[in-house]
């Protein structure tokens, strides 16, 4: 007998082989797409952390050791203020302005709101309105945030710690937080050693 075609078994075997190749190919494609998505998310997280680190370091390195006032013009106790367990820090920083007619000293407030590190920059060093600021979301999904301040070789959870330190900036400022079960720490040297003179 002279066959000019494939037998049913040959066709079935070839279909099984082709389907196995298709399954393996689709699994490889799915795996590569998942890896690409995961890599993109990690890169976004790294980008977010790098930008936040740059902004935070700049603000603290340009810190201005000047008196803070409340919204009524009364002096506050300290030139940098962070209370125990407050998850916030307030200080004045030297921020370049578009116009030379405006003071470059602006109040900066970092605080944890809804698991996000928020940076508020007020329009002046001693604002009269509680809403006179621009706001920037620096880091999302923060599980814990802690500010610490180094003075005379000891770390403190609040600032100022005394009447003397109310006129000084800490030697080092440490910001610790956790995000997606990873611990992060920034240590910043404001490099400002003089005390405020009244």
Write the topology of this structure.
Blueprint: H1 8-61, E1 63-64, E2 80-81, E3 88-94, E4 105-113, E5 116-122, E6 133-139, E7 142-151, E8 154-156, E9 172-179, E10 182-188
Antiparallel strand pairs: 1-3, 2-3, 3-4, 4-5, 5-6, 7-8, 7-9, 9-10
Q: Would you kindly provide a written description of the structure presented here, covering whatever features stand out?
A:
The structure is a single chain. The chain has one helix at residues 8-61, and strands at residues 63-64, 80-81, 88-94, 105-113, 116-122, 133-139, 142-151, 154-156, 172-179, 182-188. The protein is α+β, with helices and mostly antiparallel strands and 198 residues long. It has one domain.
Helix content: 25-40%
Largest beta-sheet details: 6 strands, antiparallel
Overall morphology: elongated
Low-confidence regions: none
Oligomerization category of the chains in this entry: single chain
Total count of strands = 10
Structural class: alpha+beta
Give helix and strand order, one letter per element, not per position: HEEEEEEEEEE
Cα(first) to Cα(last) distance is 113 Å
């Amino acid at each position: 007998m002279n066959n000019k075609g494939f037998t049913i078994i040959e066709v079935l075997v070839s279909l099984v082989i082709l389907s196995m190749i298709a399954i393996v190919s689709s699994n490889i494609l799915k795996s590569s797409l998942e890896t690409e998505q995961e890599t993109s998310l990690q890169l976004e997280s790294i980008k977010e952390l790098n930008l936040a680190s740059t902004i935070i370091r700049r603000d603290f390195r340009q810190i201005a050791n000047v008196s803070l006032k409340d919204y009524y013009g009364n002096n506050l106790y300290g030139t940098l203020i962070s209370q125990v367990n407050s998850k916030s820090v307030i200080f004045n920083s030297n921020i370049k302005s578009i116009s030379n007619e405006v003071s470059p000293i602006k109040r900066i407030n970092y605080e944890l709101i809804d698991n996000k590190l928020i940076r508020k920059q007020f329009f002046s060093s001693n604002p009269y309105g509680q809403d006179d600021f621009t706001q920037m979301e620096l880091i999302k999904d923060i599980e814990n945030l802690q500010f610490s301040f180094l003075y005379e070789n000891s770390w403190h959870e609040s600032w100022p710690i005394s009447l003397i330190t109310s006129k000084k900036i800490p030697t080092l400022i440490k910001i610790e937080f956790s995000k997606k079960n990873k611990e992060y720490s920034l240590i910043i040297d404001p490099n400002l050693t003089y005390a405020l003179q009244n």
